Amino acid sequence: MSISPPPLVISIQSQVAFGHVGNSAAAFPMRACGVEVVEAPTTLLSNHPHYATVRGQVLDAALVEDILTGLRERGLHQRAAVILSGFLGRADTARAVAAFVASAKQANPNVVYACDPVMGDADLGYFVDEDLRDAFARELAPLADILLPNTFELATLSGAPVTCAADVRRARAALGRPAVVATSVPVPGRPGFLATVTATETSCSAIEVAHLPVRPAGTGDLLAGLTVARLALGLDLEAAVARAVAGVAAALERTSGAPWAEMPITSALDAILAAGDGDAR
Fold first, then answer.
1. Could you give the CA distance from residue 85 to residue 41 in angstroms, rounded to a whole number?
2. For 105, what's the count of Cα atoms within 13 Å in the CB-facing half-sphere?
3. What is the residue range of 150's domain?
4. Predicted TM-score (pTM) of this structure
5. Amino acid 52: pLDDT
6. Do 82 and 123 meet the contact criterion of CB atoms below 8 Å apart?
7. What are the tens digits of pLDDT across the range 208-233?
8. CB 272 within 8 A of CB 247
């Protein structure tokens, strides 16, 4: 009796030896959801850069491109249900990812490209250079089936401020992408809440959560990973986002209030995966 392989997600983003950002936040929970994950690193760092020291480096674009070439040689671009990209570090790396995604879409028209345009945040400003921001806007965003920015990044891409759910809907239309899932969206009249807003060509929905007094790195990476894993498993986008938001909330509820404390992904994994299960459809 033949057994169908699980859906495949190719995840192109940062990797750290210690802590939970990039693939080091997303890959383990994605696998636990039941998908196969192929990790293509764009950095090899000791830890995320909010510690007093960080060792390692952003990988050369040529090395990342060579890894992606190897994935093509294995035919993985033809098998993938979803390609997810996150922190890339260099404009040339973004161009290599764009070429990989374009070749995947040509070989596999059903593949979904989910782009998390990691560029900065409202409280940090930009942490990538202008060339990379331009590459996100000109080369990666136009390929994306789903964009997964925070409000700071969405405002950068769309050229307009994002202060409510309606702004996300307008930004999606301006960018011309099928779907935008925006995080950290203010909720007018509810200063203690933030929303994750899903805007498509036909709908716009918001999930509001209370703002917790914690600030770990990697929450967007975890949310993106949980979202694409559930998409690969067949959930529709709104249901996948709802499960992901609930999963991130479960991790944050268990995170220390110390500055830049790590999310306890391993110990909280059961809660992360179970969160929002009754809302799936």
1. 10
2. 14
3. 8-272
4. 0.96
5. 95
6. no
7. 999 999 999 999 999 999 999 999 99
8. yes
